[in-house]
Structure formats: structure tokens, C-alpha cells
Amino acid sequence: MKRTEAILLFIFSLAGMEAMSARDYSLASPDGNVSVTVNVSDSLSFSVRYGDEQILDLSRIALDVKGQDRAFGDRPVIRKASRTSVDRTLEAVVPTKFREVRDCFNELRLSFRGGWSVVFRAYDNGVAYRFETSLGDGRIYVRDETACYNFSDDCTAYWANEKNPDFISHCEASFQPVKLSGIEKEKYSYLPVSMLTAGGTRVVVTETDLLDYPNLFLFGGRGASLEAELPHVILETEMRTDRDVNVLRKADYIAETRATRTFPWRIFTLGDDKSLLENTLPWQLATPEYSDDTAWIRPGKISWEWWCMLNVYGVDFKAGVNTQTYKYYIDFAARTGLEYILMDEGWSASTMDIMNPKPGLDLHELIRYGNEKGVGIVLWTLWTPMMKDMEKILDTYRDWGIKGIKIDFMQRTDQPMVNFYEDVARECFERHLIVDFHGSFKPAGLQRKYPNVMSYEGVYGMEHDKCSSDISPEHDLVLPFTRMVAGPMDYTPGATINATKEDFAIRWNHPMSQGTRAHQAAIFIAFESPVQMLCDSPSNYYREPEFTHFIASVPTVWDETVAIEAKAGDYLLIARRSGDTWYVAGLNDWTRRELALPLDFLGDGEYTAEIFKDGVNADSWAEDYKCETAVVSSGDILPVVMANGGGWAAIIRPSVK
């Protein structure tokens, strides 16, 4: 045999050995209803079934690292397959759904030649996977990550419809339903992407444990397939304003990172609309708490002055950014039991000078006065000065006695900005400061690692009532099945001026909300945020004592959540428990409807229900509501009647004997 022929035969033999190693690996959820098939052949791909329904056909995934002879996932050679089953209970420091979370899954770990692995987990309510690398102690450059999700059905997706080559976004979409096949090729969506299959399964794609890595975005225009893209590292920018940047130069990679690490989890939640309200997979899969020094973390409600433009009245001082007005806010918070007040943009000498208050504003007196009243002060900050001098600024806030920050207008979604979020969370944690990320991308697990991270915006919320008519009850009924799946959202409810669709008017200084007063009350229970804003003026709240008392009585963290009934975009009915008291919320779109509320989640004995519901004329006068009480028990079923754009809320406490 000639030498050339021998070499070719050897090469073909190696190829044949790799081909013979091509095989499928199966993984099922603990209840057997969710199944994953991982195919290792010329490429790495996986498929997903849920019950009798095929959700994903074979979908290719890969990780492209500079210096490797091929991408991880391209002609992979498997070294080892191992399986693990886990059934444990996790306890949340700041529980947005459950204080104790059952974490029960089966795991498949596939290790490949070249120092990398992929891990799949199958839960009863979803599937997750991620890459891992073991490439020594150095650094690597990740050029790209491939994910082409081939859905078996032309699902209807809630799509963000954004378009920016640098993925600059505040992630504030009015989600529009569209068939996957109808998505424009150049329009992307940030995560979560929520879809409904023809078989009625609600699938939500999102990510968690997003650390030292960019956000993932999905593109359509490929039939029923969605393809991932991730922003490249931004190397050079120029400031267009105090908060906006023009991107001048980008790297040819998406991440420069540790050579040995785990990468973010890609999650597919599975179930129906009702079960989605109880799903906690993004939290379960996130990195555990950074520290057990968490006793100081204080969730709660917070008054907000920007929405109503500091318009207080019936007072003997001129309202505005001044000491007297903020003392008025502190008095209101103390009187109604709110934990914090927010001093939003305008309190500081300038947006770039956030270590000095506006001249004439006695911030130290306000901090002293707030401490005397048991009310903490949270300060608005801009990301640009914070990025330049974070430690000095945060040291100053800590030394002043500030309790937290609301940091705003980040916009970028690349790896350096993700790292900036973690820097803020960690440095604030070390100084016992809570954090609200505004002008931000969605939560992606950081709030578990650093439980002082209370909330994120990344939502088209009620602040936009001041400038658009998009924040409707229908929009409100989309958010729990899209954005809220990722984690807490700073939607900022609490309007006292409420309007029907016909009566709504855009007003900047005296804004109103769409939908009924009871709709606003129910949002405080239905929407998750460990620091929940009260957006309206204290003067308006003083004129509405029943409403104010009700929303001020609602906690912001929960021991247990029970979803009762739900249909995305139309309605929901949900119960949450704090201690021995239950809080129930019904939210409705513009169609009047009646639901049934079985009280079988209650314990034994009698309870007293304090009910806040639409009045008989709420269809035409959105501020019409009725408060009533009823004695109930676990065998009862309550009617939940909701007007057009309406709501229903109840606080159910054990009866005093």
C-alpha cells in the first residue's frame, strides 16, 4: 500500500470512528412529561417534546471560541455522558413568588474532546441548557454563540419588533402577537419571547445566570425558526447626551472572559398560561446568594414623585424640588406605612454631579427626618457618572445614610454593560444599599446572587401614560406572560385618576391611567416587584383614603403563589400568601367578564375578606369602585365581576375569635 493511500485510509478511519460515535441522548423530566433528545453528530443539536406535542425539532447550538480549530458543537467528539437527579428545596431571601421553591430536575452532562461541555436540565415545567468550558486559568475570546431554535409549529409570539445594529435598547416594547413566519427578518426581540403553540402550550424563551457575558436576542424571518444573535463588545463610544452614546467601534468578539467557566442558561418554560404565573425557573437556575449577610435587606413600597411631577396641593409651601416638599412625602410614607421615598432625577446639582444636592435642598435634613419617621431615602442616579466613579459615589451615599439607588438609562446590552450591572449590585451590597435598575434590560438572575437588587424596569410601564395611550389594560394582561417571566418589574402603578378607553387623555403634569380604579388596586398584587412604587401624588392619595389604605396594606414579597385562572392578553386571577393572610387579584382587558374564585387555598376556619372591586358604573366611570367585607371559608366560591378594563382585589385574613 502506498504511503498516501495509508494516510487517506487512516483519516477515513478516524472520520468513521467519529461518525460511529454519533448518537442520541435522551433526558426526561421527573414526571416524564417533558423530554429532551440531544443529537451528537456532525453538529450538536437538541429537540424538545411536551406531553404529546413536539415543541422543538432538532435545533443546532454551538460556541465559537478564538484559537480553537472548530466551534464547540461543530463535529463534536464526546468523551463522557453523566446523569444526575436532584430534588431539593431552595429558600429565597427576597421571594417574589414563593419563599420555599422546590428545585426538582433531571440533568444530562455531555463532556467533549477539547475541554468543553454542555449541560441539559429537564424540569416538569421546562428545559434549560448551557455551555461550560474547562480551558485552564487564562482568558478566552468568544466570537459567537449559535442557537437556531426550530419550532415544530408556526407559533404565535409576542414580539418586541426592535431594530438597532448595536442592540441599544431600554427594552420597553408594546408586545405585538405575530406568527413566527410573519416576523420581519431585520426585526429582533429581546428576551423573554413568549409563544403559544397550536396545541395550546405556552413556551417562553429566556436566559438566566447572565454574568460576564452579553444579552441574547432572537431574530425571525426564517419560517418557524428563531436564531440568536449577541452584541459584540463595544470598545469605543462618544457621548451624544449626558446618558446616550454613539457606538464608534466594536470588537470582533462577544465576550473576553475566563477560560474555565459556566455560561448563561437558555430556558424554555413549558405549560399553560395559568402555570406560567407560578414558574420560577429563571430564579432557580441563577447563581446562589453572594453572601449570607442579608438581614439588612428590606423590601417594601416606595413613593415616587416624578410621575405626578411633584404636584402636591393643599399645603402652605411652593411644591417642587425642595426640602418642604420632600418632607411632605416622608410624612405621607410614615403615615401610610411605606418603607421608602424616591428622590428622582432633579434632586442633584446636575445629572452628572450626583454627589451634591441641588442648591437649597437640605438632603441631610431629609435623611435625618426620614430616619426619625422610619422612612428610608432612595436616590436616582445616572449610569454615566456612576461608571466613572462608582466607589466614591456609593461611599458618599452610605455615609450620608441613603438606603438605596435607582440607576437609570443604561441602554447597552453588551458584556461590559452586563458587568457594570454586577459591579453596581456588588458594590451596593457591600454598602447595604438596595438597587432598582431603571432604563435597563430584563432581570437575568443577578437578583438572586445579589438579593439587594430589588427590581428592574425593562418594561413598557405606567410612566408612559404621560406621553402615549399604549399602557392599556390589554397591555397589562400581556406583561405577566412575557416580561414578568424573567423576574420583578418596575411598572410603577398606583394612579388615582383613572379613565375608560374613551375618556383617557395624555397629560404630562397631571397623568391618568387607563382602566378602572380596581384595576390599579389589583396590579399591586398581580405584578411582582420587591420595591413597588406608588406613583401618584400624596395629595391625591389623601383624597382617596380607602384606595390608599388598601394598596399600602399589600406586601411586596410572597410566601406562596397560587394561579387560579389566566389567559394571556385577556385576564388573570391569582392568589398570593404572606404569613397567614391571602391577597387575591383579578385583572381584566377591555371586555367585561365574570370569573369564579374558589377559596380552596385557604386553611381551616373562618376568614374575613376585604374586597376592592369595580363599582356598578365602572364601565363608564373608571373611578367607580366599591369596598365590602365578607366572612368566607375554604369551601366558598366568590364571584369576581370585572368591568371593561377592570379589576378585583381582596385581602383575606383569618377572622379574629
TrEMBL record:
Domain Glycosyl-hydrolase 97 C-terminal oligomerisation residue range list: 557-652
Superkingdom of source: Bacteria
GO molecular function, one term: hydrolase activity, acting on glycosyl bonds
Protein name, UniProt field: Glycoside hydrolase family 97 protein
Needed cofactors: Ca(2+)
InterPro entries associated with the record: Aldolase_TIM, GH, GH-type_carb-bd, GH97_C, GH97_catalytic, GH97_N, Glyco_hydro_b, Glycosyl_hydrolase_97
Keywords noted in UniProt: Calcium, Glycosidase, Hydrolase
Assembly: Monomer.
All copies of domain Glycosyl-hydrolase 97 catalytic, residue ranges: 306-459
Glycosyl-hydrolase 97 N-terminal domain: residues covered: 27-288
